[in-house]
Structure formats: C-alpha cells, structure tokens
Predict the 3D structure of the following.
Amino acid sequence: MLKPIICVGAILVDELIHAQQAILPATTVNASITKTAGGVAHNIAKQLSLLDVPVQLISVFGNDSDGDWLKQSCAAAGVQIDASITKEGISGRYTGVMNVDGSLNAAFLSHAAVELITPAHLAQHEALLLTAQFIMADANTSVESMDWLLNFSKRTSIPFIIEPVSVPPASKLKQMDLEGLYLVTPNEDELPVICSEKSFLTQLQVEELLKKGVQNIWLHNGKQGSAFYNTNKAMTLHAPDIEVVDCTGAGDGSLSGFLLGKTLGKSDEDCIKLAHTLSAEILQVNGAIITHLSQAALLDRVATYYPD
C-alpha cells in the first residue's frame, strides 16, 4: 500500500471574480464569479487524491457553513483530514480578481488561521507524519512549524518540501536554516526574497540556496517553463504552448504532478514533464484542479506535450 503524501497549510474558500472586459481603476466591470475549495496545501492534496495518490491534509477549518462545505469537499475527493483543526469563527477565504486573459489582477486572503498549526500540534500527530512518503508545507505555515517539520525530516529521512506560495510568505524562508530541505519551488519573483540582497542574479541565488544545504531548487518561469537545480545537475524544460483560460492553481498543479511522478518512481526529468503536463491542463480550465483526467490519461497526455 502506498504511503500518503502529507500536505500542511491553507484550505480556503476560493472566490474568483472573472472580469469580462479590461479592468480600469475606479470603474465598474462586468464579471462572473466562481466558488471552489482552494488553498495551496488543499489544492495539492485534492489533486493528488483525484489522481489516486493517498493524502492527508493538515489545515484549519472554521466551524461555519463554509467549513462544513470544505470538509465535505475533502471527503468527496478522498482527502483525509485526521490531523486538521476546526476553529471557532469563519473559514479562510481567498478572493482573486482575474483579468480577461486569465491572469491575476489582485487577490485578497483572510482568516486562513494557519498559525494554529503549531509545532505542538504537529508533535501531537507525529505518528501520522511518520507514515508519510513526502511532507510538503505551503509557506503560509509559520516559520516555527516549518522549522519543526524540517527538523522532523532530517531526523526521519522523510523528504520535506516547501512551496513558497507568493512573495510575502516566501520572504519568511530567508530567516530559516534550510539545511537538509529536499525541495523548494519558487517562481522568478519569489526566489530573490528567499535569498540575501548580495545574490542579485538567478545563478547567484541558486548557488546561495545550494550552499545553505537545500537539496533541490525548482524555479518556475511561467510561460518560459522551469529549471531544476541541485549540486549534480541543472536542467530546463519549456512550457507547453497553450491557450490560457485561468492561471489559478497552475503552480500547485506543477507540484502535484511532480509528487505523482515521484510516487511512481520516475526520474526528476520525467517528473517535471508530468508536472508541466498537469499544469497545462489546469491552465486550460477554470479553477485550480482538473477532474477530467485519470492518472492513466494524464500519463498518456505527457507525450502530447513532450513527444520523444
């Protein structure tokens, strides 16, 4: 039986406002609105579960109707939440304003309460964490809890991954001792804030993180694709040429695809091809998760984007 991937971080009500014309300041714009379950850790957990990978989500729910709805969404997708927290008050919410081309204009995060996932809470669930094949945390998680998970990883040899999420939470990583971290997955905006000011070029930033003991750095460059670095190699892969409908969740999908590949025992290069394939499929639908492809169909789709 496969060991689970444990995802730590936010679950949110994702409310996406899709502008139907160009957004101008201080002006009313026609739009449509969609509501889905979201949050980086949740998106990765749910996508993996829909692709037949066992997962556990450690997150925070409100005890309101939205919290009940989010729990039902997890249950329907097979996402286990044994170590999650239910707090008094309202559930977290992400409100994104999307441009006509599907790109993000602005976003607002409220009441995520991820700070309730403390080192003490994680220690209470150490038996569950010991069952993991990988542990990932989104950087909305507190520095103290990410430190605890990294030390747990070094003690148990269970690989630990940090997804930076966006520039503000990514900046917290600069103050951490990242020695032994299996993987960090910044984009071109997040990488500089993880590093010191003296590392002003991408190559210098990568070298700094490797010297700090990060095992693998996976740099996402949007339409240009991504680059994967460790002390033994550096490789790049172009992104598929597609028509973008909605950019929400593309980065989450990449990490989901990478982890699926690792679960299947694939090489780093094949994991990244699978990651780009899943991300491309997500970019072509509204929302952060695809439901139209099985694991087998997704694996077959890789050859469409990356023919030998």
Observations:
- The chain is about 35% helix and 20% strand.
- The two ends are 32 Å apart (CA to CA).
